[in-house]
Amino acid sequence: MTQVMFDLDVLRTFSTGMALGSYARAADKLGRSTSAVSAQLKKLESQAGTVLFRKEGRGLALTDAGETLLAYAHRMLELNDEASAALRGADLQGWVRLGLQEDFGETLLPAVLGRFARAHPKVRIEACVARSGELRERLELGQLDLALAWDAGDQPLSPHAERVARMPLLWIGPTAPERVDAPWWTEREHRGTGARPARSTEPLPLIMLDAPCPLREIVITALDRAGLPWRRAFGSASLAALWAATSAGLGLTVRTPFGLPSHVRVLDRAVLSLPALPQISLVLYRAQARAEAPASRLATLLLEAVRQHAQFEAVQVR
């Protein structure tokens, strides 16, 4: 049996089209005609020996085989790009000071920083995990080269900032609802009945980061406008502590779907009669417009990883 050799150029078109949600946009980004992209996709299905796409409305969606191939395409392209970067940047030297919020520690640090370190072993990385306000202050003081942080729109963006993605704010509770024993927890009583529960007169217990926290203000404002009573059940400066308190059933918290641990889950706000919440922006801040080569390369890897992860999370929440 002849071994299939997938064409990396075709896989890149395949991956780019799914990431952008349109193969017309992929053609524009890759500098190809739509007919050339269409021919590449037909070639890919021929190589795969199975159907990869199915019609969904006016666009295309992936079959199970397509989903499987997309996961491998990401890995193959990542390894290819890593090898290319390692050869081009073998002599890249210097250091990068990177700031992140806690949400991205487990999600991005191991993959992105590991990949960067393998490709550029002579570059030193200093990473700092802090809240958004502190990260912006450190940038202004010249203590960071890059920072990845949430922006709730409460402050104007700096000249060198780039909005990477928009993510929804979601109500989060414990994975195991049996841990919760409180009058406000109505989801368990009405699950599967299709009934909309009456609002409890008990204040909603909130688990939030200590002030100052833009998300805290957004949530409190939404609850007050909806006429829902609330109380502060747990507060901390640590996101990990908030996850622990939420998992234990002490109350509900609010966060984006980015980096949620397995012991908490997204709740159906309609079932719990909770107000809708806005989206917030994920922003990559740069200390200067023209970054040094090490910082520029790390920024590219961060953007790729974040956009891929954000696309995956958006699909899961839909």
From TrEMBL:
Q: One Pfam family of this protein, by short name?
A: LysR_substrate
Sequence similarity: Belongs to the LysR transcriptional regulatory family.
Q: Where is the HTH lysR-type domain?
A: 6-63
InterPro entries, per database record: LTTR, LysR_HTH_N, LysR_subst-bd, WH-like_DNA-bd_sf, WH_DNA-bd_sf
Q: Which UniProt keywords apply?
A: DNA-binding, Transcription, Transcription regulation
Q: Does the keyword Transcription regulation apply?
A: yes
The record's listing under PANTHER family reads: HTH-TYPE TRANSCRIPTIONAL REGULATOR LRHA-RELATED, TRANSCRIPTIONAL REGULATOR
Q: What Gene Ontology molecular function terms does this protein carry?
A: DNA binding; DNA-binding transcription factor activity
Protein name as annotated: LysR family transcriptional regulator
